[in-house]
Task: structure prediction
Amino acid sequence: MMRSALLIVLIVSIQVLGQTPLPKYKGSILFSGGTLHVGNGDVIDRALIGVEDGKITLVKSGLTYTIDKTEYDTVIELSGKQIYPGFINTNNTLGITEIDAVRPTRDFSETGLFNSNIRAGIGFNTESEVLYSVRTNGVLYTQATPRSGFVSGTSSIMALDGWNWEDAVLKMEDGIHVNWPKKITSTGWWANPGPNKKNKKYEEHKNQLIEFIKSAKSYCEKKNHREKNLKFEAFREVFQGDKRIYFHVDFANEINEVVDLSRELKFKFPVIVGGYDSWLLTERLKENKFSIILDRLHSLPEFDHDEVDLPYKIPAKLEASGILYCLSMHGDMEAMNSRNLPFQAGTARAYGLKNEEAVAAISLNTARILGIEEAVGSVEEGKIASFFVSEGDALDMKTNQVVLAMINGRFLDLSNRQLKLYETYSKKYQD
Amino acid sequence: MRRLIFFISLCFLTISFGQKTPLNGVNDADPTIYALKHAKIYVSSEKVIEDGILIVQYGKILNVGANFMTAIPQNAVEIDCEGMEIYPSFVELVSDYGVDKTPINKKVSKQQLHSLKGEQYYWNQAVNSEFHPAQNFDFNFKEKKELIKNGFGTINVHRMDGVIRGSGMTVLLDRKKESFVLSDRSSTFYSFSKGSSRQSYPSSQMGMIALIKQFFYDLEWYRNQEGPKGNLTLNTSIQNEKLPKIFCVRDKLEALRVAKLGKELGLDFIIRSGGDEYEAIESIKETGLKYIVPVNFPDGYDVSDPYDQRFVSLEELKNWYEKPSNAYFLDQHGINFALTANGTKLKDFIPNLRKLVKRGLTVESLIRSVSQRPAEYLGVQDFVGTLEKGKIANFIVCESDFFKSNRARIVQNWIAGQKHEISTITDNELAGVYDMNLSGKIYSIEFKKKSEKYSAHIEYLKTIQDTTEGVKKDTVKVKAPVDYSGKNLSFVLPIQDGHFDGIVSCNGSFYKNLGLAEGNATYNSGDFFKWSLIRSEKTKEKKANSSFKLDSLSLDEVLRYPNMDYGFDSLPTAQTYFIKNATIWTNEEEHVLKDASLLIENGKIKFVGHGTVGLPMDVIMIDAKGKYVTCGIVDEHSHIAISRGVNESGQNNSAEVTIEDVVNPEDVNIYRQLAGGVTTAQLLHGSANPIGGRSALVKLKWGFPAEDYLIPESDGFIKFALGENVKQSNSSSRNSVRYPQTRLGVEQVFFDAFTRALEYEKEWAEFAKRPKKEQTAQFKPRRDLELEVVLEILKKKRFVTCHSYIQSEINMLMHVADTFNFNINTFTHILEGYKLADKMKDHGVGGSTFSDWWAYKYEVKDAIPYNAAIMHEQGVVVAINSDDAEMGRRLNQEAAKTVKYGGMTEQDAWKTVTLNPAKLLHLDDRIGSIKIGKDADIVIWSDNPLSVNAQVEKTFIDGILLYDHSISEEMKKRNAEERSKIILKMIEETKGEKGLRKPTRKKRHLYHCNTIGE
Result:
């Protein structure tokens, strides 16, 4: 009783503080009584979650497991609330852009066609105002991803909390991003498209890209080079299987060519990013060890004849096929829109996924695809204590109310610039 | 009698061609009379003579009639046209052959706000009425031969440049005796294309429509002005005023826009349309206008790849399949149309005309539309277009069944009596195998004909000395070219058989009835000797294509509403529906009704609530147990369903334009919004300038014509905008010259516009105060469409929806409005509305905002998702809008975010996308809630509409079921079947064709506020 009261004080004090990372909570905490969506497909009622030194030490159901709560320094009662693993945002510029229309704040498009060596994490701005409006909806990690060129660079997996990027980084170089050329392109610019046509340079560009990757492979087959090529060096871990290779590609013909390349070069963890047509090719993709990061579901169908709700239905199609996939927010204004990632999963649930499958599609599935499932993605013993508590269903915008969140055993300040403005101007009208 | 005719026609000739050129030499007048006999003569579409005679002299038709009734003048040159057909040669209405192009201004480094033509011309560079082709016409243009070869006799040329393009000139394609101009000024031209003008205005189609309107009002005013008239553009326009006006457009939607424009201006345009008129045939017919229809049928697609195939939409497939039937459908519906080769390669013109016939257009209708009507449209029907006595001898002589047989050729094209041989009149008479006697030695020789040329193939035995096998004989075949002109025959044979060892050159006569030829030959240029041929076997003529098969389509069967993916088979109608056992959200005092019923009848809500109600016989029952029923969603800010430009960004004030002019009912996003429960939308002009254009308030009546989208008797709205977009902050440095470039300038644009509008009002008031006899055109002020609209705002007859972000500018505009004594109706976006909600409340303005957008540009860094909640709490009428085709179909979810951010109640949240926007659009007396007597715009949801789990099951507008989830799935299947049917035909018809179009990625125009350009 005493201890619970203590916690209330603690939470209030968090909200008063500014947006500086809080220290790791010293001592052991028990989160008791909430409904836990583990992330791996399981639900645990009246969950008991123990946390100590930034790690999850206990995950049990209070229905079947009895515990001496006094063993914990702090007990937080969460009955009636929903607990989720921190959601993971992938393929996004969050943290490496602030306001897209203001050029000085954009740090995601390097010049040149092949930039495998650049690393997004070192540009990650832990003081971005946008970050704090994202984590308040339960998104606690993001894959900072560079754009542009044929090989846009190496992405980094970052926690949405930390004094600086070094604090925030979970995995600095998780994989290299390849923008596969498009076979059919539209000319003009987005608002005023010219005649759309076959990309005459498709073969040329594709071959240029393949040649680059093959050169990287043959370079990496040798350990030491007199003259180091940083672009090729970046691939070394890809071929060893320690890094992912992400192919950004949407349509079936191009996907097939990516699969062909991957078979030839024997990539260990190839990933399709975008994957509008991936559901047409699940068998082949599965056979060749591909996983899929889908683009934002809240998108218009690509073709007039597509069902009006086709994008919403793709996750259920992939789920049924058994292939590993996850959801992303990639698309217009993606940084600020990252906070809507949970609702992508909600939409996928409305169109065929089970609730726990939908949760997995933005947590453990994602962690597995990115290669960080040992550390995060689910609330399981031994993993990093990164999870959040919502008053209601976190996948529904109507009920998503995050009241408590933790990264690495550190409680999060759930305030943000927007909330502060809300409070400030609410006061204006109180007089 | 004959002499008399001769005399008359001669006089006519002299009159029409006008002048006497001094001769260099002796008089070369050619009085030869030609009599073309035994032809099937299409005198006009009404009159066909099976066995006719056409008599020609001095370039005119001296007489035409049945063979047995028409006497041939004694001295006539008779031409036997047995088996031939004679048609009036084609008249082309729309072309620019021989007309020089406008030199394009070098790229200007900054936005070009004014015309570079100079003050003596109209202020807009896309208005070129002063241009006339005669100024610099090159009669020896390179396509002339090609035109003659393809059956044309007369063409109308103009310079294809600008929105208002100048005049056309009608010329004959042959100009013996300088007689080629038929009509110096025959027509004037208009289009929806700026051409060479780089002036910023107009940047959109609605801008072009406004420009044309203003131009004609300016013309009217200018005409009545006294004093010197120095505007060359307007002067020419006055001169040309009575000429037929031809308006070139791309498709049926544009055609209907032109018809509407013409109605307002009292002008009957002739419309050079897009070849898809059948898709809106009833509306097209209602215009009562004449149409010039292209035959530029789409090429087939390469559909060999099942994945790439998907890039071709059903709309494109259907167009490929159906467009060749367009002319037939138009003819069936009694629409007055002509055909044009404009847009078609000349070599494809006749093959495409044949496609029309194959699709059911009669030959009579065809020649009416390809020669007779074009001549009528240009007012030159007394000279060309038909083959009546006295007309200019413009006709083509063709092989029989010309429009039905792909092999039939044009043999001659006569222009003003000048004969042009197109292909030689020979049949296959020479073809066959012959025995040839060459000074006693007999050879076998065969004459073959291929593409109008004969060749000789001779066989002989050649003796070869072989070192191992001794003497050997080998059969040798040699091919040699043949010159044959109907009688005289010559050819050169290389022979090396011991008997001859070189070149044998033969010349002689062929007697076709006997199958014999004889003449003299020379061997290696030596002495002449005799040769003869006797036919042993005649090559059988391949039967000229008698396989003409009619392949007409039925419009009822092919047409969808709209004619594309998810179009209806027939237009749905309002039915009587009884929805029962539903949870109904009314938006009225009692908001949630459980287990309640709803009766829809005649497009209105007839009953809502509990208890019993008498049901009509034809009622359709819908059991909505477990479902939610609401009124339709109203999107206060949408840019879907707009053609060619959402912004008229060329000027800082474009009040003269209206989205109502450019509603596009064929945007698939309309159907997608219905699938998200949206029934009503304000289609807004963009935010590129402080005073934008007027809105269209529409119901999303998928399948219906554009006019039916507009909500009748609704109030008028206009878009204003503030901030970064209007000062072009996020644009390239090119766009740094248009006023305003600062928020300070923005305010002055408004002050200036309203000040001028008041002066304008005064000017008209003073005119109205003049004595009656002075209220004449001479004193009438100039009509200014822009100021008229601005004045409407001050008169509270038009209401402002203003794009806005930061509080300073919002404050500013409310002050401007207060100064001029009116209210801003709605601030849209209004992302800092929460900072001055009290002031907004005092001003009486509503706020239509995004649920959670921010941080995409500098001026939205203070945007917060609690905005709606704060404004609502302060008593502002708050709506959540989309500004985005994708978000538009999830507005229920966006409304739900107001519950999450700021804790609005579900009822209030739901109103932000229904009743509140209806209030902001002044439509809450008929939509926005479920109340007896209101429009039956109803949505049935699978779940609580504010939940992410909710899906739309049915959407009704005015009692018409326009979206039904299960029907949509059936439609998808139907689409797929139709696709495969057409793809199969495409594969059959395009087999072996090269250069098929690769499927293209179709990108629809997705407009947002700041979209510039078409």
The CA atoms of residues 358 and 376 of chain A lie 17 Å apart.
